[in-house]
Structures are given as C-alpha cells and as structure tokens.
Amino acid sequence: MSLFPTTIAGSLPKPGWLAEENRLWPAWKLRGEALAAGKLDATVAAIRLQERSGIDVVTDGEQARQHFVHGFLECVDGIDFARKVAMGIRNNRYTAMVPTVSGPLALRARVHAAEARRARAATDRKIKFTLPGPMTIIDTVADAYYGDRTAMAFAFAKLLNEEARALAADGIDVIQFDEPAFNVYTDEVGDWGIEALHTAIEGLTCTTAVHICYGYGIQANTDWKASLGGEWRQYEAIFPALAGSRLDQVSVECRSSKVPVSLLGLLAGKDLQVGAIDVASDTVETADDVVRVVERVLEVVPKERLVLSTNCGMAPMRAEIAAAKLAALGAGAALARERFA
Ligand code: ZN
Asked: What are the φ and ψ backbone dihedral angles of 88, each rounded to 5 degrees?
C-alpha cells in the first residue's frame, strides 16, 4: 500500500430512515426484516461514501449496531437486558443505564456475520472491523455473577476472540478493539488490559489494532477533557505496555489533542493510526490541516508507520459534516503523499 493509507476510527452517522440522527444511542426506525435489510443497505452506503472520499481501509460504519458496546452484548448469553441499573462509567465521568451479567457468558450466535459478509462482497478495498475491548465492555455492564472485574473481562475476551476469528474468516483485513477505558484505568492496562487483548487476538493472522481515545464529542467528554489541563499525559502510563504488546497498530487522536507528540515515541515498533480529523468539532478540516498533523507526528514517528484516520467514531455527527470531514481526510492524505514522499 502507498504511503499514508487512510482509514476511519470506525463509526459513521446512520441515515435518518434507519435510526434517529445525531444520537449516540439512537432508536431504530425499522423493525424485523426491514431493519435487517436496512442495516445492510446502510453498510454498503457507508462503504461507498468512504470509497468516494479516498479512504483506503474502509469500515462498515457500524451501521448495524445501535452502540459500539451494546451491539456486541446483544448476542451474548448470560446478560440480562431487562435488569438495567444506573452505573457511573469511565470512572464516573457519566452515568449510563447498563445491563447486568447474571450468568456464565457465551456467544449465542455470530454477532457481525451479516454486515461483515455484505461489506466484503461490496468492496475490493481492505476492510477494518471494530469490536469493543474487554476493559471497555466490563466498564459498561453491571456484574451480578463473576464477582471479579478481571475474570469477567477475560470471559468477554474469549467471546471477542471467537467473533474476531470468524470475522477474519469472513475476509476482514484489520480487527480493531476499541478501548476508551484504557486512559481512564491506566494502572489496569499493564496489570491485565493488554493480556485481555492478547486473549482477544489469539490465533488471528490478520492485522490487529487497538483504539484508545478521549471519547466522542459529547458534552461529558468535552467537560472532562477541559479538566485535564494543558497537556494530556495519561498515555505516558500505558504506551510502554502497548509498545510491548502483540497488537500491530495503535489508533490515537492527534488533531486538536493536547497529547504531547513526543509521547508517540513511546510506541516505537507499532504502526500508528493517526487521528487527523477532530470529531468533537463541526468545523471541517482542510487538507492542509491534515498535512499539519502529519508533519507534527513525523517528528517522532517514521512515515512508513503512519495510517491517517479520524480521532474517534463519527456516529453522533451530522451526516453532511462527517462526509465533508472524510473528504478532507482523503484530500489531506493525497497532499501529504506529495509533500513527504
Ligand atoms: Zn474513540
């Protein structure tokens, strides 16, 4: 692949005919077979949009799941969705109504087979598929069975591995685990977070990635970021452990981020998915904005190791803004190839 291949963190806005717009937990507008068919149509549309925008490694846009964690949990036995409790998540940054683990966990069926296969049939480009990471999952469910956070995390990691292997067999090229919980529970990343990811990627021969981030552009996250001071150094505690991991790529936000670029040097040996598009702002980047991010990162990371991406998922954004930002990413990557070839 050429220099600076492009991808996106994962999600894209859903069309208004499929689900409520501009919501992180949107309600579906279709039911039954119409919903199943609609999810697949939206998946193909998301791929076409990425192709038109110059995105090299496309995703399903997460069109078939209501939320990036609960989309997975819906296919897991041992979770009682009727037993929802209010739980402070991400170290009490915000409160969510979460379901309860009430018995041994097992996959009831394939989680993402339909959209993965439709995506594979729809494009010749490489496809990246996202799954929630074990630490993020256990931070989004209540436990009334395992009595031990770590044991529950590894139980989920085994299920993730089952689905990840099946996705690879479906022809998926990159499997990415989303772990926004990693920069909240930094001590636990080295203690067991990486090992849980290793369980999740066991036996995979496709490319593997982990996305860590400071969250979508929702108010609770924006407020939290404002409280973190002039420099965000949370990654300093976890990058050395990630550098020593068996994952191939790390996805990090870099646009409008206060993470000192020097910290990226701690990820030596890893390919970097560089977030060059801010998803917490509706201001559309220019190609030059993208090039400026690349220029800064190149101070510490060799160009062969860079993949250009978005900071985080775009699910809650307005569709026309997300589309314009994707176009900027594609154009920015093209410009960066000219500039830094
Ligand atoms: Zn993210």
From this structure: -75, 125
